[in-house]
Each structure stands twice: as structure tokens, then as C-alpha cells.
Write a structure and sequence with these properties.
Layout: H1 2-19, E1 24-28, H2 39-49, E2 56-60, H3 68-71, E3 76-80, H4 89-99, E4 104-108, H5 119-125, E5 129-131, E6 136-142, E7 156-161, E8 165-166, E9 176-181, E10 206-209, E11 228-231, H6 237-240, H7 243-257, H8 274-279, E12 289-292, E13 298-301, E14 316-317, H9 318-326, E15 331-332
Parallel strand pairs: 1-2, 1-3, 3-4, 4-11
Antiparallel strand pairs: 2-14, 5-8, 6-7, 6-9, 9-10, 10-11, 12-13, 13-15
The structure holds 2-acetamido-2-deoxy-beta-D-glucopyranose (6 copies).
One 2-acetamido-2-deoxy-beta-D-glucopyranose (NAG) binds next to loops.
């Protein structure tokens, strides 16, 4: 009896350790217009949260990372606080190939206010930002108490936020709405920037898409297209510093990854396969990291150890960024 049990435990241990490596997420905060003050807070907080949520983040504003080759190292991309045309046509095409290879999408706040001309991107995010009334206190309501992005949220919560309105109904892109807003809880204002389809009711605030649409077919041998999660919350520094928000965002990201469409889960064409990681000669032990892009992003860091920043990877790891901030080194983003 005992040896059998021991064997089962050993087998389970080997299976769980060999099939699962740490999902690797590219966080993209590039802007081509409005720039949120909360970008440094977002990077700082995500960097601190990575270990707790068993993911690793690389932070970048470098559009040249959006090639099929570079993206193939990642299990997911997170578009956070962007604006405007942050990728060219080649970058947009590589991103689409990534999604149709199983790479997952997460969008935060104005992650829906970029790449307006890219229909595929619109389908991945679900709906694009149209306008918002003034920043003010509003009451948000939970529509789903089991989804990982909302199960730990209160049924109703009130905070300062820009209540986003969208250029279409994300439900038309197969989104399931997770959060809405109490329409009587804030002063409406602002007006639509065009003659767009209705965003539908209840007013979409955060949602998920199990199987995002795309004009590009699934790549050969891809298990499935990557899942998508989007939240329009996240305007203020204080929001990023709120554990309820982080639980919402990281719950959504984790849910998208748990669709098991990537190499971190032992399947698929993209993502972190630790075995490959070990065999590859990526620059390791880098003790200083710096990025300097056309977009103007720059950072220096004295973080040792895990920093994996080199010529082939112009991003910043969470450790590097957290290190830079911890060491009080100016982080200009
Ligand atoms: C890949 O997964 C391994 C095993 O979990 C982890 O040690 C490593 O840091 C991950 N690499 C990246 C780039 O996320
Ligand atoms: C948000 O944080 C940034 C630095 O991280 C700071 O420059 C900015 O003033 C803060 N904004 C507010 C409204 O506190
Ligand atoms: C992260 O991994 C550890 C060890 O496997 C586990 O105990 C913990 O619950 C995981 N955390 C999350 C948020 O999944
Ligand atoms: C987006 O498409 C519109 C209409 O075709 C065009 O006028 C505009 O210049 C495009 N914007 C960008 C940034 O490509
Ligand atoms: C809540 O989310 C779960 C997925 O986590 C889904 O199965 C369920 O249908 C959703 N419920 C509603 C009311 O949308
Ligand atoms: C975070 O937001 C929740 C929901 O509004 C609120 O209950 C909580 O007090 C906030 N936490 C902090 C530290 O502000």
C-alpha cells in the first residue's frame, strides 16, 4: 500500500513540476498620446505582486519586442494605460499571431484606447474606449461572484474612477460582463466621439472572453486561442495601491492563463518553458539593466540576480524595476 501511494505522490510531483513553469507576461505601457501618471505605480505594484501570483513580468515600452519570435517567449501580454497607435502594422500582425498561437491578452484601463485601426486588436480587447465623464466617485457592481477576477470583490464598491464608455458592445465580441456601474451613482457627462454602436446594458466595466474572435485562423498545432480579460478600472495611483483592485486584475490575468493554452502549462507554441529557458543562453546574472527607446522610456537598475535584460530583450523584469525603485533610483517612464 505505502509504496504504491509513494509512487502516486512521486508521479504527481513529477507531473506537476514538469508541466508547470512560471507564466511570463509582457506588460506594455507605451503611449502615443495621453500619458497616465499612474504608469510608474502600475509597474511598481505589478513587480511587487509577481511572486505572490506565481507569474513573472517583463515591463517594456519598446514596440520592437512585438515580433513573433520575441513574443513566443511569453504566455501573455498585458496592455496597461496605453494611448494611440502604439504598434505599427508588423507589430499588430505579430500580436495577432501570438493570440492565435495561444498567447493570452489582458487589458487595463486605457489598454482599450489604443490601436483603434486594428480590428483584430478590438476583437481581442472586446470593445474600444470612446469617452468618459469627469473623474469622480462612482459605485461599481459585481455581476459574477464566482469568476476569479470578481469572486473576492464586494457586491458594490465605490471609488474615484473614470467611468468608461465604449465604441461598441463587448458582448458582440463574445465578452461576458463581470462588472457594471450603478448609473445613478455618478454625474454623466462628456459625449461620444462618433456614431458608434451602443455599448449595451448593463454598462460594461470589466469582462472576459473565453475565445476571442480573429480574422487570423488558429496557428497550426495551437491548442486554442488565448483567453482575454479586460478591466476599465485603474486610472489613479490609489487604485493600483488598493488590494481589491490588484485581486481583480491578477485574478483576471490568472484566469486567462488558466485556459492552459501556453507552454507554462506544457502545451502550445508560445510561453515560458523552463526546460528551454535553462538550455538557452539568455543573458543572466546581469547586474544592471537599462532601456532607452525611441518612445523615451529609460530606466537604470542595480537589481542583481534574475534581471534578464539584454540586447535580445529590451524589457525590464519586475525584479529590475522593483530594485530600481527600492534603491531609490529614478525611474523615468
Ligand atoms: C520560467 O519558469 C521557471 C520555472 O517556474 C521560472 O523559474 C522562470 O523564472 C520562468 N522564466 C520567466 C522568464 O518567466
Ligand atoms: C502618482 O504617482 C506618480 C509617481 O509614481 C506621481 O508623480 C504623481 O504625482 C502621482 N499622482 C497623484 C495624483 O498622486
Ligand atoms: C503560488 O504557488 C504556491 C506554491 O505552489 C501556492 O502555494 C500558491 O497558492 C500559489 N499562489 C497563487 C495565487 O496561485
Ligand atoms: C486610422 O484610419 C483612419 C481611417 O482610415 C485614418 O484616417 C487614420 O489616419 C488612421 N490612423 C492611424 C494612426 O493609422
Ligand atoms: C461567471 O464566470 C464563470 C467563469 O468563471 C462562468 O462560468 C459563469 O457563467 C459566469 N456567470 C455569469 C452570471 O456570467
Ligand atoms: C480598496 O477598495 C475597496 C473597495 O472600494 C475598499 O473597501 C477598501 O477600503 C480600499 N482599500 C484601501 C486600502 O483603500
Amino acid at each position: 500500500m505505502l509504496p504504491v501511494l509513494a509512487f502516486i505522490y512521486l508521479a504527481a510531483f513529477i507531473m506537476s513540476t514538469s508541466a508547470q513553469s512560471t507564466p511570463h507576461i509582457l506588460v506594455y505601457t507605451a503611449t502615443k498620446g495621453y500619458r497616465h501618471e499612474s504608469i510608474p505605480a502600475a509597474i511598481d505594484v505589478l513587480g511587487q505582486q509577481a511572486d505572490r501570483w506565481n507569474v513573472s513580468f517583463t515591463f517594456t515600452e519598446d514596440p520592437s519586442m512585438f515580433t513573433t519570435d520575441t513574443l513566443s517567449q511569453f504566455d501573455g501580454v498585458m496592455f496597461a494605460l496605453n494611448s494611440g497607435e502604439v504598434l505599427d502594422d508588423d507589430g499588430q500582425a505579430a500580436l495577432q499571431t501570438f493570440f492565435q498561437s495561444g498567447g493570452v491578452y489582458t487589458g487595463v484601463h486605457s489598454g482599450s484606447a489604443c490601436l483603434y485601426n486594428d480590428t483584430n486588436y478590438a476583437q481581442a480587447v472586446g470593445a474600444l474606449f470612446d469617452y468618459h465623464p469627469e473623474l469622480q466617485s462612482a459605485t461599481f457592481e459585481r455581476l459574477n461572484d464566482t469568476h476569479p477576477a470578481t469572486k473576492n470583490l464586494p457586491d458594490r464598491f465605490t471609488w474615484e474612477e473614470e467611468v468608461y464608455n465604449f465604441r461598441s458592445d463587448p458582448r458582440s465580441n463574445d465578452a461576458v460582463i463581470l462588472l457594471t456601474v450603478d448609473e445613478n451613482s455618478y454625474q454623466h457627462g462628456g459625449s461620444s466621439t462618433g456614431d458608434y454602436p451602443d455599448q449595451g446594458t448593463p454598462h460594461p466595466i470589466a469582462w472576459y472572453i473565453e475565445s476571442p474572435k480573429s480574422a487570423l485562423p488558429l496557428q497550426a498545432d495551437a491548442p486554442r486561442a488565448g483567453r482575454s480579460f479586460y478591466t476599465s478600472l485603474g486610472h489613479l495611483n490609489t487604485t493600483w495601491q488598493n488590494d481589491t483592485f490588484i485581486d481583480h486584475l491578477m485574478g483576471g490575468l490568472t484566469w486567462a492563463l488558466e485556459g492552459r493554452s501556453t507552454r507554462a502549462y506544457g502545451v502550445g507554441l508560445v510561453g515560458n518553458s523552463s526546460a528551454e529557458e535553462d538550455g538557452k543562453s539568455t543573458p543572466s546574472g546581469t547586474t544592471s539593466a537599462s532601456v532607452s527607446e525611441s518612445s523615451g522610456a529609460a530606466a537604470t537598475s542595480g537589481a542583481a540576480g534574475q534581471s534578464r535584460v539584454g540586447s535580445s530583450n529590451m524589457g525590464l523584469t519586475a525584479a529590475a524595476v522593483a530594485g530600481a525603485i527600492g534603491a531609490g533610483i529614478a525611474l523615468v517612464l
